[in-house]
Structures are given as C-alpha cells and as structure tokens.
TrEMBL record:
Source species: Ataeniobius toweri
InterPro entries noted in UniProt: Treslin, Treslin_N
Domain of life: Eukaryota
Residue span(s) of domain Treslin N-terminal: 32-212
Protein name: Treslin N-terminal domain-containing protein
Pfam families hit by this protein: Treslin_N
Length: 232
C-alpha cells in the first residue's frame, strides 16, 4: 500500500547584501543607510512570517563587496537556513555591523576600480544558489537532499507550468540588497563600460542566460532592494 507524504510548505529567503561603503561621505550617512537596510530586511521577514506562519519561514544572508569584481569571494560565514526568531536576527545585526568595522575596511587604492559591479552581483547570486539547499524538504517528506539543480525536461528547461508555479508561489526568494542603477551614468558604472560600448539590450549583461537558467532550475525568484539614497 502506497502512503503519500506531504511536506510542510516552506518559504526560503536569502538576502545578498552589498557591504561596500566607500561612496558614503560620512559615518552618519552610512549609519543611516545601514539602519534602513536592517529595518527593511526585518520588515520583509515579518511580512512573510505573519502571512505564512513564522514556523514556515527560513532565511539566510550573504555579504559581498560590489567593487571587488568577478574573482571576489563572498565574505560571509555559513550557508544554512535559519529559523525566523529574535535571536537569529540579533546574530545577523551583529555580523552586519562587524562588516563595517575599521579592521574590515579596504582602502580605495587597494580595490580594483575598473572591476565590474555587475560581475560581483552575478557571482554573489550564483554562489548563493549553489550554497543553500533550496529543495530541502521537511522531515515528513521522503525526498532526498540535493545541492544539485533539478533535472530539466527534454527541452532543457522546466515546463512552462512548472516555471509559472514557481514564480507565483515565491517560496524561494533571493533579495539582492545593493545600489541599483537609476540612470545611464549609473548603468555605465555598474557594467564598467564606456558610453559607446553600451549595447542596446543590456539584459544579458545584467542577468546572463546561464545565471537565469540556474534561477529557473532552483525555482528561485530574484528581487533587488535598492539602497541608493533618494538624495543622490
């Protein structure tokens, strides 16, 4: 006799946070920005917790530096989902603040000024998709754990209905927390290209097909939280 197991519907959230600081003119402006970032993340967590149940929300975070370039590694410990509790958020706040201590800062002259910020974002998202177990089931489910992408269909992609279900459910979500380009000048700086070299369609430069395929395979929805000041 076959027994059907039903796993608890979990909502997995990961915040990929840019800790680049050098463009801020003062420690006060940086502190204001950081407070807004922490409050925004807390607001999102509480929204999911109240909407779906705190026991059904798991979350995590990664830190990276936008100016570090393609070869930079993510500067964060751990890659496990955490329960949505007061203690886990306190731990996050402490680690977040530690990223801006003097000992962790890098002088502008030591950074690669010509490195692509877009490459840093892509690398951070890619590592996040690989590090976290997005398809980990609840203990009541007989499914096996796997860090590998799900097997695709014959066409090499998820079926249209499967992809739509993934996007509509939003059970796996990555939030990039960084400055978002708002103008042509911002976009040129983000991509590290000259004005004459900017293509008509920059989609592939911002989100390459290989990375988009990973998002689809892992059934992860990508959002961007812009931390740029409205006064800039």
């Amino acid at each position: 006799m076959d027994i059907a197991f039903k796993s608890m519907a979990l909502h997995n959230l990961v915040f990929v946070i840019d800790v680049d600081y050098e463009d801020y003119e003062s420690d006060h402006r940086l502190e204001v920005r950081n407070n807004f970032v922490k409050r925004g993340i807390l607001y999102i967590l509480l929204h999911y917790g109240y909407k779906y149940g705190f026991e059904k929300v798991r979350w995590g975070y990664k830190f990276y530096q936008a100016r570090a370039g393609r070869n930079a590694s993510i500067i964060s410990r751990g890659s496990d989902f955490k329960e949505l509790r007061h203690k886990t958020f306190e731990d996050f706040e402490q680690e977040f603040e530690a990223r801006f201590d003097a000992k962790d800062k890098v002088c502008p002259s030591q950074q690669k000024q010509q490195s692509s910020k877009s490459a840093s974002v892509q690398n951070a998202v890619r590592e996040t998709l690989l590090d976290f177990q997005w398809d980990r089931p609840d203990i009541t489910s007989p499914a096996k754990l796997s860090l590998r992408p799900r097997k695709s269909s014959r066409a090499g992609k998820l079926g249209l209905s499967q992809e739509n279900d993934s996007l509509s459910s939003g059970r796996n979500v990555v939030f990039v927390v960084s400055r978002c380009p708002r103008s042509r000048a911002h976009l040129l700086d983000f991509l590290s290209v000259k004005d004459d070299d900017l293509p008509a369609d920059v989609t592939e430069y911002i989100l390459p097909k290989s990375l988009n395929d990973m998002l689809v395979q892992q059934q992860v929805v990508l959002h961007w939280i812009d931390t740029r000041s409205h006064f800039e």
